[in-house]
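TA notes, week 10

Several of you asked for a full example with nothing omitted. So below is the full record: structure tokens for the whole chain, then the designed sequence directly under it. When grading your own attempts, check the secondary structure regions first.
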């Protein structure tokens, strides 16, 4: 039985509840989120945009995901991965795989730090090819995924894009040349 209090859809802010909700896939566990992101990454053709507070290890620092990103970038010369991360300090100290990958593939993957005024209301999201998205509250293992809703993906990009344009490259994640 799925009650409204257990339904991840209630996590969506009201402005993200309009559009094609029939294809929403509620996710309620970390393995579900990881598998969905892995599959969506494998099906992405051009762009992946990630908003995350701290490059969440349990989601973004695992070998299958890093391999999928590597294949995505190497399989398409127009591939682009943009990552907005509020705080990368712990990820840098722990040697996060996504940071290492961004340091190797600088023309396709960029990590930026948004200004302090850019607050995404404690949310984490990924937009795939401007048409699909996975949205969740930071720290939660409940999420909503939809790979067929350009309208709602565009709403997320309306948050992401201005923040990206105003953000600065995170100096802590750049490749160090000696």
């Amino acid at each position: 039985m799925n009650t409204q209090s257990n339904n991840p859809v209630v996590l969506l802010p009201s402005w993200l509840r309009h559009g094609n909700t029939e294809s929403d896939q509620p996710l309620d566990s970390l393995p579900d989120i990881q598998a969905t992101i892995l599959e969506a990454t494998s099906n992405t053709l051009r762009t992946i945009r990630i908003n995350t507070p701290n490059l969440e290890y349990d989601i973004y620092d695992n070998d299958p995901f890093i391999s999928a990103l590597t294949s995505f970038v190497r399989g398409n010369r127009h591939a682009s991965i943009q990552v907005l991360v509020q705080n990368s300090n712990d990820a840098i100290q722990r040697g996060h795989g996504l940071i290492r990958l961004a340091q190797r593939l600088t023309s396709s993957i960029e990590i930026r730090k948004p200004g302090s005024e850019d607050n995404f209301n404690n949310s984490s999201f990924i937009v795939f090819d401007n048409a699909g998205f996975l949205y969740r509250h930071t720290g939660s293992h409940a999420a909503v995924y939809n790979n067929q809703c350009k309208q709602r993906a565009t709403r997320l990009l309306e948050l992401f894009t201005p923040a990206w344009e105003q953000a600065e490259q995170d100096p802590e994640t750049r490749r160090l040349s000696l």
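The two ends are 58 Å apart (CA to CA). Use that as a sanity check on your answer.
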